[in-house]
Input
Amino acid sequence: MSVRIISSGEPCGGVIVRCDGIVTGKELVEVNDTVAHEPGQRYQLWDFTDADFVQVSFDEIQKLAIQDSSIPRDCELQAVLIVGSSRSLENLTDTYETFSKRWVGRQRQYKTEMFETLSEARNWLIENLGISDLD
Output
């Protein structure tokens, strides 16, 4: 599978997902179903830096947004971070943001942020959430 959870939960309340090779929307939806039920998450970091291609439909992006809007209320999700630099990934991020805010009705006020490198995402986590223990 080209999409897999590499870290979750303690010590910093984050879920890190690594994507590589050819990534399909079906894989993203399957893994995100698990991610959406992870207890105690403050952030999700989706790393697409090793992805060669991301193939996802509008319906699949909407499913991702619906999954994230159903995260249990006791989780304090503050951010969904997407790391990668392709134009298709920018489109995916923009569409996810639109679906999660306008069509699904975001239940929480978490941020969606996109970064070109993991270093930029880690710096954002340090500056905005006070999280520095990533790995």
